[in-house]
């Protein structure tokens, strides 16, 4: 039984699941059944230093830059409609490959062009984001976006961070105004 | 009071709840409000899961429509009595015969109990059928979500969305190619029945047929343009039907025998629809869910006014079925002086729909009846 996400809650991954070295962050939603513009949800990851900023453009992993330089974070590709069962977009993280000067990795989900399309998570059917242990397949945490993030269009879902030599996980669940661009700028990108 | 925007949700706290939909009526465009009780897959289980003006109490009165007037519809939902198979109740509004889109409805508001209100922003909406909101189960309780999404195509795609009138496979998988008598690669975008090919049999591909729609369109004469109703030629479409239970009758405008889709004879004359340039003419709908109840249907046209010059009418009957090629029969034969044309026969051939081109002409209803062995009694009538 996966943990239900409480805003701000954190857990030690090393203690919860000592075997955890490879993580999948899965984003899923149902394709639009009604008329109108498709729902296009995007999962992204930011590799952040101790100051909470990216070191450079290479630390922003998203649909146009699928892999971090050292291979610690890999986005398996953009899905623009939510077609298909299960996770529609997946970001893989290999904790053992994360560079030493990266202190945390933030995961975000945004609706592409949400403002123009007048869309929010609550209008999308069965949208969720979750963290899975890649090796065991066990789901660690899941967030039901349609329910909990209903009127948001961008959110910082969760972050992995170093703490006293181990990796911890924090469920952030925080909405963010302005979409992916504003999010990226908040992490020190310069769009 | 919680005000919801589309996408927003809020808990519904009481077990018995009033849901009020009020809106600004649009002149000459009726708005129908309905409730659909949906199972886990978001589909209705049957006709008994739909609550609307023609069926105001469903599910042992756990869902009731207590008011349905221009500008206001009220439902009373007894959520505690809804059986566990019902996951949510979707509330919808549709504009009858797509005569307007919701852009024209300046105010459209849903309130749930005394606590929740959702004003739906209709500006710019091209939809003619809308899912206003849904009351759904969530962690032992119920919640309401404002949806405000829908379909520009109106009631039909909305009904399909909820699993009504359309084969069950349509939602999740692409429709299977039509079964064209062992030749799947032939071009089936339209099938024309003529003298060289006078019949086609459409096998049941999945659970049942959707709505079978028969359209009669014709050239109305030279003055006033194609779509102006010229008094010179006025064709009416109608049909003789025979059900499996032996019941026989006629569906046509004459004598106000418009039929009914949900009940016997499961055939309805939809009347004239002159709102769209390509959807003109007369429409006869057959409820494909009830095809198993129907033995045969003889589609005919008759000239109510004007000289019976059939060739000049350039009449064409098109039979539309979901996931099937359109079937077309042209009235391009010399009809002499007779005012009635038997156009096509739809027969239940072991569950399949067998369509046969007829295009033969008769002096009137009773003569045609006799020619096809229908066996009804006829007397004169007027529209």
Q: What's the helix and strand layout?
A:
The complex is a heterodimer of chains A (191) and B (383).
Chain A: E1 3-4, E2 10-12, H1 13-16, E3 22-28, E4 41-48, E5 60-61, E6 73-75, E7 89-94, E8 104-111, H2 114-117, E9 128-133, E10 139-144, H3 145-148, E11 154-163, E12 166-175, H4 179-186
Parallel strand pairs in A: 1-10
Antiparallel strand pairs in A: 2-12, 3-7, 3-9, 4-5, 4-8, 6-7, 8-11, 9-10, 11-12
Chain B: E1 2-4, E2 9-12, E3 16-23, E4 31-38, E5 50-51, E6 57-58, E7 63-69, E8 72-78, E9 88-95, E10 108-112, E11 116-119, E12 129-138, E13 141-151, H1 155-161, E14 190-193, E15 199-202, E16 211-217, E17 234-243, E18 248-251, E19 259-260, E20 267-272, E21 282-287, E22 294-305, H2 310-313, E23 316-320, E24 326-330, E25 340-349, E26 352-362, H3 365-371
Parallel strand pairs in B: 1-11, 14-24
Antiparallel strand pairs in B: 2-13, 3-8, 3-10, 4-5, 4-9, 6-7, 7-8, 9-12, 10-11, 12-13, 15-26, 16-21, 16-23, 17-18, 17-22, 19-20, 20-21, 22-25, 23-24, 25-26
Function (chain A): Not known; seems to contribute to the tellurium resistance (Ter) mechanism. Also involved in phage inhibition (Phi) and colicin resistance (PacB).
Domain TerD (chain A): 1-187
Keywords (chain A): Tellurium resistance
Structure, explained:
Chain B: This is Tellurite resistance protein TerA. Chain B: It comes from Marinobacterium halophilum. Chain B: InterPro entries: Stress/Tellurium_Resist, Tellurite_resistance_TerA, TerD. The complex is a heterodimer of chains A (191) and B (383). Chain A is mostly beta strands and 191 residues long. Chain A has helices at residues 13-16, 114-117, 145-148, 179-186; strands at 3-4, 10-12, 22-28, 41-48, 60-61, 73-75, 89-94, 104-111, 128-133, 139-144, 154-163, 166-175. In chain A, the strands form 2 sheets. Chain A has a 6-stranded mixed β-sheet. In chain A, strand 9 and strand 10 (139-144) form a beta hairpin. Chain A is globular and about 50 Å long. Chain A starts with a strand and ends in a 5-residue tail after the last helix. Chain B is mostly beta strands. Chain B folds into 2 domains: 2-164, sav2460 like domains (Lipoxygenase-1, Sandwich), CATH 2.60.60.30; 190-371, Lipoxygenase-1 (Sandwich). Chain B is 5% helix and 43% strand. Chain B contains 3 helices and 26 strands. Chain B has helices at 155-161, 310-313, 365-371; strands at residues 2-4, 9-12, 16-23, 31-38, 50-51, 57-58, 63-69, 72-78, 88-95, 108-112, 116-119, 129-138, 141-151, 190-193, 199-202, 211-217, 234-243, 248-251, 259-260, 267-272, 282-287, 294-305, 316-320, 326-330, 340-349, 352-362. In chain B, the strands form 4 sheets. Chain B has a 7-stranded mixed β-sheet, with no helix packed on it. Chain B is elongated, with a radius of gyration of 23 Å. The model of chain B is unreliable at 166-188, 222-231 and 273-278 (pLDDT under 50). Chain A binds chain B through residues 32-36, 118-123, 146-147, 150-151, and chain B through 5-9, 126-127, 131, 138, 145, 147-153, 157, 161, 171.
